[in-house]
């Protein structure tokens, strides 16, 4: 039998193959030769054959029949055999095959071999692919080697121990004694691997973490030596001494210093030193700075250091190197939650990164931009983000559109702006928006009553331009169906009203029905919209015709709708106006979750033949409902203390200017008749005025509420220059032992009065009467004022809510005390 | 820790694969396919970092070879670039002006060098000299055998 060809020969031969088929043929031939050679138990050339097999394995061909041969090589005495054998084991075997367990004994023997390089091979193999069983069996040997003075073996044993701990965490304790003097080594290899071992132990066990905290000074010293020491050719990388070790130590310090004040303090100086002294001209220096910044942000560092860290990231953002910019954006994303204001300072740079050519950077910049949006910068940021949406790759559009919607919902400065923004998204990235954005937008539009005419006009114009983007078309047809009358009558206030006839509108909607671009869902929307217009437009015949035509449509959904609408025209015409009238405002449960209006193509289902819809409520239904209900009916105008989308949500608890916002009827209602007055807290006291003096605006203060330790006093004065405005100042004090936090005072008055509630001095009422919260109420047209108040606060951890009513306050002088 | 280290050519041919976690053969093939596709598709002047599943992918091109590694979330990407560079330097020192052919014809040596530099996905030795010394010693041990056998080992 001739000697099997040598490895390099084989490689050369295979590379001459011109086609895949030729290569496959050569390989099959060689594999057959190798297989027969293995069968003959040829010891001399086993090594060569396995090496060739490994090469063929790398090309992608099966090599499993060589697994046992690797084991035989490992058991051989020759170093060459062992070397190839262990390599083969690492490439061909893994813990899934039972065969690998046969290695255990060999490895055990080799771990005790006289030659350190053989021991090294064994440690390497164990440390790369040792299974849990192998690790359990051999952990003792590894631990022994961890204590040796041979640095070559010690470093390998350390990383092997890391692998053992990863596979079998229970064995961690076993290595603890050996770690005692690991850090006193001078050898950098041992130092580095020891730090890795310590890191792994600290990450896995809080006890270990506490135990190793005492190493912080030693680590700091090692790091300091690395920085201060002169040039060491052995470890130098572009002028920095052993950056790998430096980074690893910084990472361990990060873990040790997290949520521990003492350790954090001990490392403050060295971190500042590294941050300021590291050369930033090469990637190496920046790698160290990056790790330093991550460490500073994670431990309990002092604020000066944190600012230094953020500034480093800011400098990174301006760096020419794309990698550094990418890394800066990633880190800023991590810190934006905790150090929001500091990151805001770099907002303009971050927004510029949106225009970067690199895809990874663009994505990071987009995520970070969304995290930075707040009530103050919403307009500017949205402009940039919409511009980005216009020009970005399709892979970004969906995420960007979702982000824009979320941000607009949270921070929109005005309803018109909100609607404009959403329209812009729909027109530019309409096909990429999420499915639930259509119902969300419809819900938003119904809620902005005053914008209906403007909205429908803009949507109509958008439809004239482009009917290919389905979400836009769906929203537009729904709106035209609902508000078509506003469109035709040209009532728009916000912009120039367009002149549209009923026929033109119907043309557009019918065009949607027949267009190839419209999906079946869109067609459904437009058919319903046409139907709704039958109650809003005068020319019904055309609509009847369209509806009857679609009664024989192939699309089952359209057919069903058309048939039902037909029935509406024929048999149930008396119900048609009621069924098709304006939709009421829809309640929204959560911003992102499924809303209750899932059937929100806004249709009525004629087949259900439902009774009349409740009359549309023109006020947004929020917390105000509580007070409304309690005061018994509609004769009270609530003071709403919520943040409406019309006002920026920058300060929590900002109160609305009632006089500007809610629509009060022009003519004042007659003063409430005595018989309809709800019962007062104390009834039947005589209306003995305490002070008759009108001119001296000194109405004595009164206690409006006193319960559970919370006392609210009212003091009165008359506002200059308008004597018709009474200014009531409430003083809330707390006589209990615990503070009352999140204190919110709300008030409701009858419709004849107008009331303005200014911001409170604070929302914590300190305990034991140590201070009070004051808030000013201005009342216009004060006569006999009765006020219902609602108080909410948190006391000793649990929320408290209470309602009360003041007596009739005769604010022009006379009043009743309670 | 690093999860894997791959070397492949501009045509997508694999030259070296080191796996630091237990992975099935099918999964290995998938990872290799994904990595080659993603990395080769990158335009010339982009950053060296990618996100893939839950790993950070760091890659660098040296002449005709791409060096590609997958990192965990808390690993330092910029340092990974230095690790790749250090490996290339080690190869360069050993082979003397290393090129792709050296790695093709001496792939087992490339593995041996790697095993002196990294282990279990972590850096084993930070000194270039020490790695060089270990390789020399290993080679001498091999040659001794060869002389003894008076024929080339493989």
TrEMBL record, chain A:
Localisation: Cytoplasmic vesicle membrane; Endomembrane system; Golgi apparatus
Location of the GAE domain: 697-810
Major localisation: membrane
Keywords: Cytoplasmic vesicle, Golgi apparatus, Membrane, Protein transport, Transport
Database matches in PROSITE patterns: GAE (PS50180)
InterPro entries, sorted: Adaptor_Complx_Large_Subunit, AP1_complex_gsu, ARM-like, ARM-type_fold, Clathrin/coatomer_adapt-like_N, Clathrin_a/b/g-adaptin_app_Ig, Clathrin_app_Ig-like_sf, GAE_dom
Stored Gene3D superfamilies: 2.60.40.1230, Leucine-rich Repeat Variant
Pfam families to which the protein is assigned, alphabetical: Adaptin_N, Alpha_adaptinC2
Gene Ontology biological process terms from the UniProt entry: intracellular protein transport; vesicle-mediated transport
Membrane topology: Peripheral membrane protein
Transmembrane helix recorded as keyword: no
Secretion signal, residue range per the UniProt entry: none
Chain ranges passing through the membrane: none
Family in the record: Belongs to the adaptor complexes large subunit family.
Protein name in UniProt: AP-1 complex subunit gamma
Species: Scophthalmus maximus
UniProtKB/TrEMBL annotation, chain B:
Signal peptide range in chain numbering: none
Organism of origin: Scophthalmus maximus
Protein name: AP complex subunit sigma
Residue intervals passing through the bilayer: none
GO molecular function, one term: clathrin adaptor activity
InterPro entries: AP1_sigma (IPR044733), AP_complex_ssu (IPR016635), AP_mu_sigma_su (IPR022775), Clathrin_sm-chain_CS (IPR000804), Longin-like_dom_sf (IPR011012)
Keyword Glycoprotein attached: no
Family listed: Belongs to the adaptor complexes small subunit family.
Coiled coil segments of this chain: none
Subcellular location: Cytoplasmic vesicle membrane; Golgi apparatus; Membrane, Clathrin-coated pit
Source superkingdom: Eukaryota
Domain (AP complex mu/sigma subunit): residue spans on this chain: 1-131
GO cellular component, one term: clathrin-coated pit
BP terms from Gene Ontology: intracellular protein transport
């Amino acid at each position: 039998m001739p000697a099997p060809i040598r490895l390099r020969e084989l490689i050369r031969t295979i590379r001459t193959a011109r086609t895949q088929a030729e290569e496959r043929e050569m390989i099959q031939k060689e594999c057959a030769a190798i297989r027969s050679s293995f069968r003959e138990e040829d010891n001399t050339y086993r090594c060569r054959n396995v090496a060739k097999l490994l090469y063929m394995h790398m090309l992608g061909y099966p090599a499993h029949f060589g697994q046992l041969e690797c084991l035989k090589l490992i058991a051989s005495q020759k170093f060459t055999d062992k070397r190839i054998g262990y390599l083969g084991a690492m490439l061909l075997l893994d813990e899934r095959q039972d065969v690998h367990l046969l290695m255990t004994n060999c490895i055990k023997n080799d771990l005790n071999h006289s030659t350190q390089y053989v021991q090294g091979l064994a440690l390497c193999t164990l440390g790369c692919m040792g299974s849990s069983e192998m690790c359990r069996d051999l952990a003792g040997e590894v631990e022994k080697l961890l204590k040796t003075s041979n640095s070559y073996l010690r470093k390998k044993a350390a990383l092997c121990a890391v692998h053992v701990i990863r596979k079998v965490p229970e064995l961690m304790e076993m290595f603890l004694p050996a770690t005692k003097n690991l850090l006193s080594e001078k050898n950098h290899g041992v130092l580095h691997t020891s730090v890795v071992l310590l890191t792994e132990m600290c990450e896995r066990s809080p006890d270990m973490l506490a135990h190793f905290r005492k190493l912080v000074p030693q680590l700091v010293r090692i790091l300091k030596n690395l920085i201060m020491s002169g040039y060491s050719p052995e470890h130098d990388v572009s002028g920095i001494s052993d950056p790998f070790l430096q980074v690893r130590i910084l990472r361990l310090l990060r873990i040790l210093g997290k949520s521990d004040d003492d350790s954090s303090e001990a490392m403050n100086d060295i971190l500042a030193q590294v941050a300021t002294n590291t050369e930033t001209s090469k990637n190496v220096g920046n790698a160290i700075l990056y790790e330093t910044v991550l460490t500073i942000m994670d431990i309990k560092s002092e604020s000066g250091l944190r600012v230094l860290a953020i500034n480093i990231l800011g400098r990174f953002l301006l760096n020419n190197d794309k990698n550094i910019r990418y890394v800066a954006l990633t880190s800023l994303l991590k810190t934006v939650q905790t150090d929001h204001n500091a990151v805001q300072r770099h907002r303009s740079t971050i927004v510029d990164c949106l225009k970067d050519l690199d895809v990874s950077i663009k994505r990071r910049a987009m995520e970070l931009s969304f995290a930075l949006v707040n009530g103050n910068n919403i307009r500017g940021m949205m402009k940039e983000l919409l511009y980005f949406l216009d020009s970005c790759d399709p892979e970004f559009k969906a995420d960007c559109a979702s982000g824009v919607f979320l941000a607009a919902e949270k921070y929109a400065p005005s309803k018109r702006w909100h609607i404009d923004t959403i329209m812009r998204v729909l027109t530019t990235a309409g096909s990429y928006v999420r499915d639930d954005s259509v119902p969300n937008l419809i819900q938003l539009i119904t809620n902005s009553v005053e914008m209906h005419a403007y909205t429908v006009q803009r949507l109509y114009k958008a439809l004239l331009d482009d009917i290919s983007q389905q979400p836009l078309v769906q929203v537009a047809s729904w709106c035209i169906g609902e508000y078509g009358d506003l469109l035709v009558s040209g009532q728009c206030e916000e912009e120039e009203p367009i002149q549209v006839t009923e026929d033109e509108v119907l043309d557009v909607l019918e065009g949607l029905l027949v267009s190839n671009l419209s999906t079946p869902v869109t067609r459904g929307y437009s058919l319903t919209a046409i139907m709704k217009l039958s109650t809003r437009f005068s020319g019904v015949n055309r609509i009847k015709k369209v509806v009857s035509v679609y009664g024989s449509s192939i699309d089952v959904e359209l057919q069903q709708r058309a048939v039902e609408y037909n029935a509406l025209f024929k048999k149930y015409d008396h119900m048609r106006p009621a069924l098709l009238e304006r939709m009421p405002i829809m309640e929204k449960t959560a911003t992102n979750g499924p809303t209750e209006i899932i059937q929100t193509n806004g249709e009525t289902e004629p087949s259900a033949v439902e009774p009349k819809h409740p009359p549309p409520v023109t006020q947004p239904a929020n917390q105000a409902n509580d007070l409304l209900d309690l005061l018994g009916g509609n004769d009270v105008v609530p003071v709403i203390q919520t943040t409406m989308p019309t006002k920026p949500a920058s300060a929590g608890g900002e109160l609305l200017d009632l006089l500007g916002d809610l629509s009060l009827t022009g003519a004042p209602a007659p003063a409430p008749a005595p018989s309809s007055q709800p019962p007062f807290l104390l009834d039947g006291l005589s209306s003995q005025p305490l002070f008759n003096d009108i001119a001296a605006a000194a109405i004595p203060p009164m206690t409006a509420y006193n319960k559970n330790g919370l006392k609210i006093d009212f003091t009165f004065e008359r506002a200059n220059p308008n004597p018709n405005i009474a200014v009531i100042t409430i003083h809330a004090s707390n006589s209990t032992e615990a503070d009352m936090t999140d204190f919110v005072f709300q008030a409701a008055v009858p419709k004849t009065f107008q009331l303005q509630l200014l911001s409170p001095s604070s929302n914590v009422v300190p305990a034991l009467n140590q201070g009070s919260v004051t808030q000013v109420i201005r009342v216009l047209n004060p006569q006999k004022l009765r006020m219902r108040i609602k108080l909410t606060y948190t006391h000793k951890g649990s929320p408290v809510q209470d309602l009360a009513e003041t007596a009739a306050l005769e604010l022009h002088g006379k009043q009743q005390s309670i | 820790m690093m999860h894997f280290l791959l070397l492949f050519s501009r045509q997508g041919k694999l030259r070296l694969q080191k796996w630091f976690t237990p992975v099935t053969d099918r999964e290995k093939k998938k990872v290799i396919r994904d990595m080659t596709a993603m990395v080769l598709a990158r335009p010339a002047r982009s950053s060296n970092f990618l996100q893939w599943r839950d790993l950070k992918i760091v890659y660098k091109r040296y002449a005709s070879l791409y060096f590609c590694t997958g990192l965990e979330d808390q690993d330092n990407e910029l340092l990974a670039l230095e690790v790749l560079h250090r490996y290339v330097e080690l190869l360069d020192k050993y082979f003397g002006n290393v090129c792709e052919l050296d790695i093709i014809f001496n792939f087992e040596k490339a593995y041996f060098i790697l095993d002196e530099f990294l282990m279990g996905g972590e850096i084993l030795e930070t000194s270039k000299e020490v790695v060089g010394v270990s390789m020399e010693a290993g080679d001498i041990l091999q040659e001794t055998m060869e002389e003894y056998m008076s024929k080339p080992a493989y």
